[in-house]
Amino acid sequence: MSNPWHTFFWRLAAICGAALVLGAVIGQAALLLALALAGILAHTLFKLHRLQTWLGSQQQTPPHERCGIWHEIYSLLRRRSNNYRRRQQRLLILVRAFREAAEALPDGIVHLAADQRVVWFNQPAARHLGLHWPRDAGLALTDLLRWSPAALAWLRQGVSEPLTDISAAVGNDSGSGSDRRLGLRMVRYRGDGEQLLIVRDISQMMRLEQMRRDFVANVSHELRTPLTVLHGYLDLLDPEESPHLAPALDEMRTQSTRMARLVEDLLTLSRLESGQPLQEERVRVTNILSTLRREAVALSQGRHQIEVDNLAGVDLHGSARELHSAFSNLVTNAVRYTPDGGRITIAWQHNQEGGATLSVTDTGHGIPPQHLERITERFYRVSNSRARHSGGTGLGLSIVKHVLQLHQAGLEISSTLGTGSRFSCVFGPARILPPVGTAASDDTGAQTGLDAGSDA
Ligand code: ADP
Question: Atom 18 (ligand 1): residue with closest C-alpha?
Fold first, then answer.
């Protein structure tokens, strides 16, 4: 028991003892004891009332008590309240430091509550998105991004992927910014759904990217004419007239053909990346499959067993030319990377998502798992010697990926080393059309795409 309690009980005992003694003298011991206890109770109630009044008030300093239990209680409460205040100040300093650090960031940050209402944002966010503090605090993000249909569509779709390119807020106070490009990214950082919207000015990056694309497109375009001229002259030279030059002429023809294919593939990639909308139409998959079979047979020259299965029987909505070019790349690869005697299966079948999948399966060399993630990058090759020898450009799968992206489709690759690979183009239900008419009446539409895209 602590000292104040000691004193308290001694005092209680002394008061009760004195009341009893006095009571015995006057013959009213019980009455005096009751009066003494009532007095003690009243005193304690009074102190409790003071404590309650103080706790309910805004006052920092507690009522004065010189000693005793109440002095001890008030001292403890004062200490606790001082500690609490010190901690609060430390937190305040920390929050201020964080906010200052957030202000110093070059990227815009918008702190959102679980219902996507704005809690706070930094200066760069205000600049990029045209926000004002405190006017826009508490408003829904959808109201603040109303100027950008792309951003609204992104929010509706659930923001799972970053949004890479929108124009900066038009009509913000600075009046500038309409030519700026922004990237948006949503980061969920707390279990109760609070999120951070990160806004990045990607204008410079987009400009550099555009310069790179223009450069590649221009160089490829400029190379086309000299290559055609070289080709022409090489065709004029007859190796039989100068047999000692025959091997050199042969090699020059092979290399110039390879360069021409490289230039064509680069131009195809530039076209796909240009952002121009595709010419979309009904794509007769039956016709594409027949063309793919013809191309595979021609390329294989009897070295492989070629199988084509049209299990889905449906058509696609998209660009016949680009789709054929993508599928043809996969078939060409399958023939190139499958040793003689292997089997290549091209299948068109329904998938679990309600769409359809075109898969090209081979029994070839296969691809080591560590390469699968990067295999669709430009010029990425699993084995340089084998790929060069195969005559590929290193751009085929990159083209496939771009074409599929433009059709909101995905490329799935599964491969086992030494056993074979499967490349699947997975189309969603929105791209699938029920078949109509017969192949004979369809030839015109699909044939246009196939002829233009035929490169095998
Ligand atoms: P390339 O023109 O070199 O074939 P691609 O982009 O089409 O370029 O393919 C990239 C690389 O992926 C190839 O170099 C090859 O190593 C590998 N690859 C592609 N398809 C297959 C396949 N069916 N079997 C094994 N490897 C493949």
Answer: 333
